[in-house]
Amino acid sequence: MSVHRFLALSTGPLSLALTVTLAGIAPAAASSVTYHALLESVADAPTGSEVYRLSYPDVDAVQAGAFTFAGFTQIGISADFSIAGMAYDGAFQVLLESDADAPTGNEVYLLSYPTIDAVQAGAFTFAGFTQIGISAGFSIAGLTYDGAFRILLESDTDAPTGSEVYLLSYSDRAALIAGTFFEAGFTQIGISDGFSIAGFTYDGAYQVLLESDTDAPTGSEVYRLSYPTIDALKAGAFTFAGFTQIGISEGFSIRAFEAVATAAPPPDGSGPGTSPAPIPLPAAGWLLLAGLGLLGAVRRGGGDVGQGLACASALPPR
């Protein structure tokens, strides 16, 4: 599992690209968005005591650490693999990554679950290796879906901002399995010593969770960053940053974080809400973001036996 870093200032673990006062409040997500986090045992453990799920009814509950569901799943992970991320595109797509460098086709594995109950039961409907290859100095740090699949890679060792967190985009699930990305490049996100990216999701904005590499008290262990658009994510320009009240038991780490939208019932109570649906990226989100006044860098590095995508020429070769 990746080991990450994060520079702590008096107001929190932020490393800013310019002098600003952080007083932003995260954009409120719709009350119909539910968040699911998967925790995984750091050491190999039997199925039923290895992968734990937490669910939160809204982003404020994530910030407050106020879960509405908590329990072990029946997902079992082979000893040489770790969960690398989870996305929802109408089904839950879970990526596993080899802990040691491996050839493309034997390194990143995909599991598909039709519902959250199937995730809980460990009842997948698809399982197989992808053609995604990760080079020896990077690890998958998160996966989400905004109308396309997005993967964040993070350097296993500390690196300067601009060469530490890499973004890959895939048009659909078939492209994800084939390892065929349509966009690839470094972001301006930096993660400092002591923290790691633990997962990221899209709920109308991009929410990135960072977790302390060592056990820490609740309130100084899991940090959340919000980016309003994909261009802001690439630029490292967050609009909210702050510690959550999520506490992680020693021996476990957050390995995936995903938002799922469910339409609320009509206000008059005349009908049910809709089934869960993926949250698509608005058309405006594809436009170049201009005039951002807040450029942040959050720095990190690694210790996981992780990797970075080999097929992109901008990344270190295998």
Structure commentary:
By secondary structure, the protein is mostly beta strands. It has a single domain, classed as 5 Propeller (Tachylectin-2, Chain A), CATH 2.115.10. Helices cover 8% and strands 35% of the residues. The protein has four helices and 20 strands. It has a four-stranded antiparallel sheet with strand order 4-3-2-18. A four-stranded antiparallel sheet has the order 5-6-7-8. Strands 10-11-12-13 form a four-stranded antiparallel sheet. The longest helix has 6 residues. The protein is globular, with a radius of gyration of 18 Å.
Instruction: Examine the coordinates and then state which fold CATH places here, giving the name of the CATH topology.
Output: Tachylectin-2, Chain A
Write down the CATH class: Mainly Beta
Secondary-structure-based class equals mainly beta
Rounded to the nearest angstrom, the radius of gyration is 18 Å
Count of helical segments?
4
Q: Strand-and-helix sequence, N→C?
A: EEEHEEEEHEEEEEHEEEEHEEEE
Total number of β-strand segments? 20
Task: Report, as a whole number of angstroms, the end-to-end distance.
Answer: 19 Å
As a percent range, the share of helical residues equals under 10%
The major sheet is characterized as: 4 strands, antiparallel
Which regions have little confidence, pLDDT < 50, spanning 5+ residues? 1-31, 269-274, 283-318
Strand content: 35-45%
Trace the largest sheet across and list its strands: 4-3-2-18
Instruction: Give the averaged pLDDT, no decimals.
Output: 81
